[in-house]
C-alpha cells in the first residue's frame, strides 16, 4: 500500500528564528511558542539549522565552568562553543536534518529515529521551508477512525489489489487492530492480504483469520500444481 506523505501530515504554519537573532531573542521565541526547537532561516527563508532548548542549556551548564584545561573531546568543544554563542548562527545545530514534502511518513519516522531528532523541517527543491513534521504528527496517524481503516482495507486491498468479489472477505477493526476473515482460493493470497493490511497507516496489528482452499506456499504444493498442468520434473 502507498503510505501517506509528509505533506499530508506536516504543519505549514511554522514558527522560525532568523539566523542573526541574539541568543536572548531565541530563548524568548522558544518560550513564546511553547516549543522545544525552531528552524533557523536565512534571508531567503532557507533552512540553515535548528536551535533548541538543549542548545541554550549549554549556557547554563558551562556558566560556572572555570576549568581551563584543554579538552580533546570534540563533543566538549562543541558544547563549549554553544555556551559562548551570542546568536542563533553560532548556537544552532547545523546543517539541519530536513525532509521533502513528497517523502513517505515511514521515511520520516526512520529519519527521526536514525538522527535522534523529534521534528524535521520540510523543504522544497530549493531548500525553502514549507512546513515541519514532528513525532506527534506521525503518532496522530494511529488515531485514525476504525471505520476509515476498515474502508481502506476493503476498498483498496480487497477491491483494487486482489479484485475480490464483494462478500468474499471482510475486515473488522477495533482500536486499530484489524481482523481479516473470508475464504480465498490460495494461502498465498491470504498472506498478501495480511501484509498489505499491515502497511496501512494507522493499523496497530493484524489478525489473519482467513481460510484457503489450497496451500500453494510449500514445495510439495508447487510440484503438484505444476504436475496438474502436465509439466513434470
TrEMBL record:
<feature type="domain" description="BON">
    <location>
        <begin position="145"/>
        <end position="214"/>
    </location>
</feature>
<dbReference type="InterPro" id="IPR051257">
    <property type="entry name" value="Diverse_CBS-Domain"/>
</dbReference>
<dbReference type="InterPro" id="IPR007055">
    <property type="entry name" value="BON_dom"/>
</dbReference>
<dbReference type="InterPro" id="IPR000644">
    <property type="entry name" value="CBS_dom"/>
</dbReference>
<dbReference type="InterPro" id="IPR017080">
    <property type="entry name" value="UCP036990_CBS_BON"/>
</dbReference>
<keyword id="KW-0129">CBS domain</keyword>
<dbReference type="Pfam" id="PF04972">
    <property type="entry name" value="BON"/>
</dbReference>
<feature type="domain" description="CBS">
    <location>
        <begin position="92"/>
        <end position="148"/>
    </location>
</feature>
<feature type="domain" description="CBS">
    <location>
        <begin position="10"/>
        <end position="66"/>
    </location>
</feature>
<protein>
    <submittedName>
        <fullName>CBS domain-containing protein</fullName>
    </submittedName>
</protein>
<dbReference type="Pfam" id="PF00571">
    <property type="entry name" value="CBS"/>
</dbReference>
<dbReference type="InterPro" id="IPR046342">
    <property type="entry name" value="CBS_dom_sf"/>
</dbReference>
Amino acid at each position: 500500500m502507498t503510505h501517506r506523505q509528509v505533506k499530508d501530515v506536516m504543519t505549514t504554519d511554522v514558527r522560525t528564528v532568523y539566523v542573526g537573532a541574539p541568543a536572548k531573542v531565541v530563548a524568548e521565541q522558544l518560550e513564546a511558542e511553547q516549543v522545544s526547537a525552531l528552524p533557523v532561516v536565512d534571508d531567503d527563508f532557507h533552512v540553515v539549522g535548528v536551535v533548541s532548548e538543549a542548545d541554550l542549556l549549554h549556557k547554563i551548564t558551562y556558566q560556572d565552568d572555570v576549568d581551563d584545561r584543554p579538552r580533546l573531546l570534540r563533543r566538549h568543544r562543541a558544547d563549549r562553543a554553544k555556551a559562548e554563542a551570542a546568536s542563533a548562527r553560532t548556537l544552532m545545530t547545523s546543517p539541519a536534518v530536513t525532509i521533502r514534502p513528497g517523502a513517505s511518513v515511514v521515511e520520516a519516522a526512520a529519519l527521526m529515529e536514525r538522527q535522534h531528532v523529534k521534528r524535521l523541517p520540510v523543504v522544497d527543491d530549493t531548500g525553502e521551508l514549507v512546513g515541519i513534521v514532528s513525532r506527534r504528527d506521525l503518532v496522530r496517524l494511529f488515531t485514525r477512525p476504525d471505520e476509515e481503516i476498515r474502508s481502506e482495507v476493503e476498498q483498496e486491498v480487497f477491491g483494487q489489489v486482489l479484485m475480490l468479489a464483494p462478500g468474499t472477505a471482510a475486515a473488522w477493526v477495533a482500536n486499530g487492530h484489524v481482523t481479516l476473515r473470508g475464504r480465498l482460493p490460495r494461502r498465498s493470497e491470504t498472506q498478501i492480504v495480511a501484509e498489505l493490511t499491515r502497511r496501512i497507516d494507522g493499523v496497530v496489528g493484524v489478525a489473519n483469520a482467513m481460510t484457503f482452499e489450497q496451500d500453494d506456499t510449500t514445495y510439495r504444493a508447487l510440484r503438484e500444481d505444476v504436475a496438474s498442468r502436465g509439466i513434470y520434473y
